[in-house]
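Researcher: I'm comparing several assemblies side by side, and this is the next one on my list. It has 651 residues spread over two chains. Same procedure as the others: predict the full complex and return the structure.
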Amino acid sequence: MSQKQNLYGVLAEFPSAPSIYHACEKVRDKGFKHWDAHTPFPVHGLEKAMGLKASIVPWIVLVMGLSGAAGGMTLQWWISTQAYPLAISAKPFFSWQAFVPVTFELGVLLGSFGAVFGMLFINRLPMWYHALFRSARFEKVTDDKFFISIEARDPKFDATATSKMLTELGATHVELVEQ
Amino acid sequence: METSVTLANLEEHVDKRSPLVLGKETFASVTNTVAHPMEMKTPKAWWICFLIALSGLGVLGASIGYLFWEGVGVWGLNNRVGWAWDITNFVFWVGIGHAGTLISAILFLFRQKWRTSINRAAEAMTIFAVICALVFPGIHVGRVWVAYWLFPIPNQMAMWPNFRSPLLWDVFAVSTYFTVSTLFWFVGLIPDLATFRDRSKGVRKFVYGLFALGWRGSHRHWLNYERAYLILAALSTPLVLSVHTIVSFDFATSQLPGWHATIFPPYFVAGAIFSGFAMVINLMIICRWVFKLEHLVTMRHFENMAKIILLTGSIVGYAYAMEFFIAWYSGNPYERYIFVSRATGPYAWAYWTMITCNVIIPQLFWVRKVRTNLWALFIISVFVNIGMWFERFVIIVTSLHRTFLPSSWAYFQPTIIDISTFIGSFGLFFTLFLLFVRFLPIVAIAEVKTVMPEADPHGHDHGHKHATGGAH
């Protein structure tokens, strides 16, 4: 084992979307767990090639959106009947039809918070420092290059063998990245 | 201004789709094209425009300062006309914002991939327009130092707002719209800010890096990101419809002839999209020309937007006709009177300006030569926005200046402060927009790459040696 204590993992560069797609299928089939693909744009269907489960963001949005709507209606009920009842044109204090617009808006507002902050939370962002940023070539990941990173903590990881495997899968450049 | 290559995607072929990105663009060349405005030496033209816009912003600040010092009496409002330019400007700016959300959310849901080159700038336009819109209800309340009473905030008087008022619905609708549009825009920006981070040095790298949140293009991230983006689009779609619906409720739920109409919500939404697309066309023609984006923002984009303007303009024209029909058909003398007065009374000049700009001029877009001529597009779009401003003015002022009691009839005339505040709001808008085009990616880089042929993981460019492994 050539594995060093402070090694983050191996980073392999691929030239195109089809090449990384097929490489990801192979890495998935070899049974790696702690690995990732890095692309300048979401490559269509890559989650299938990587064997990823569907995102749970929709569930967060559902819960947040319903809480927002329920909270909005409750707020209006409380203000209009308990805190500050206003008698206007003999309308009932709890005239719920008039409360629909604000209920809807608060549902959308909280649902959107759920989508954005839920997504960031699941992705562990913001994370301004990451080992991969040590690689100079990795700067091209936001331009036109595609990468696969396999972490050293993966049980199947071996610095030499994994690097060799990635080269065989079509990587144009493979490097080890330190922690 | 035109070259033959920019016309190449105007033709539809049965067997293949027209390309959305023209010429021999690669991923890297798209990045370079979009990053160019941020990396180039600030052009003199930008400085000139920026100083003009900044002066406009100064005019806005001075007008608002004077308004706060003296009170709303500095505007031309009178006993009868209590809403005039302030609310006209508010509805005008909110409406402009709507096209941005339509492009970013509704066209996204309908898988209209041509939107990718123009959605970023359109979303920015939305946010800046809504900022301009928020200024007006904020300053028209009279005692601005208690404007926080608009929100249900616990206070020492134990006083709460009335949730049966459409004006309060408006507070929630517009502030939610602003917040959600900003979040949507920012989420879209994250990968492109990371692109800018990786291309720049020093302070810029730090600032772009700060806002890119450490994005590293991870597909585990993209998976959640794309899902969140789709949901934001799905939430923004009913939101944008609700915002202008609620703005129209400000009028429709009152008893005033000319306002009390069930047609208002769809009519206002169509008008909003109509004026917003006109503004997008104006802004994109300039950006495309200044920053040489002809391969990304193609004539096809302009042609599609012209078609939407034609459609929504015709809906607006239909609504004008239907308002008249219902006024007659209802048999209500007050309703009849106000509509006859609109077309023939003291504000007939405003009414016919509106009809000319909104109903007649956009009909030129039936002709393809007009839809694909940048000068024609630009000029007609300016007319559309003039017309849409007048639409709101006509609705608000004509209904107010002659109501049930003839002894209180009055004619509204704007003061210099009314005019300077409105002109100043353009200063605010263009100051923000110019900062945006200088420092942020005006085209969604990551998204444009997804619609290029090379982005297809089962494509032919590298596919030969992997051809058997593509099934999934």
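Model: For your comparison table: The two ends of chain A are 18 Å apart (CA to CA).
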